[in-house]
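Example record

One chain of 223 residues, shown exactly as stored in the release files.
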Amino acid sequence: MRVRDLMSTNLVTVSSKTPITEARRYMVAHRIHRLPVVDKDRLVGIVTERRIAEASPTEATSLSIWEMNYLIARMTVGEIMNKNVTTITSDTTVESAIALAQELKVGALCVVDNGKLVGIVTNNDIYYRILNPILGIGKPGVRLQIHDCGEGRKIEDVLRLVNKSNLKIEAIHMSEPADRDAADLIVQVDVTDPGKLIDSITGLGYKVEIRQRKFENNLSGGK
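Predicted structure tokens for this chain:
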């Protein structure tokens, strides 16, 4: 998969001369946390909620409310933006983009082709377009965790039973528990009652658990 397959292209941008108060309004209105800064079709920086918050006077300042509002109203994006923006191209592999974002500890990467900003990739894009399908989030069925089933032959044993039951696999991936050396197989099948499949898998000697799919608040009120 390439970055072009998951990047957001419906971009909201600002110029370096945009007041930070206006930039903040854009973020709130569009429910975003950062804005690429573009001057004359060229990416010159990026401004984030955090940058704006850090630039804004705090309640501890000796300035009056009038003075604070005056200073904030005059401050522009160009004064606080991050000018050292690391970019990638739309042809970059998703694996490379994720590795780069983790290395830089950033939540988004701007995508530039031929000197023009064409998109942006955020953590949310990665969650929704990559992690969700892998983990089966939003898909029907039951998720089974088969212990110590991370080898080719063992995976083949389980998949053979799933196919024999005429069940559709919605998601499949490996999990490496911290307390064990062997990997587990996680398979999500489109079935309401997985009892027969679980019996078949345990019949081969594997331990099977049904993994929780939705968060359940176990805290209860009361005295």
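Notes: DSSP finds eight helices and nine strands in the chain.
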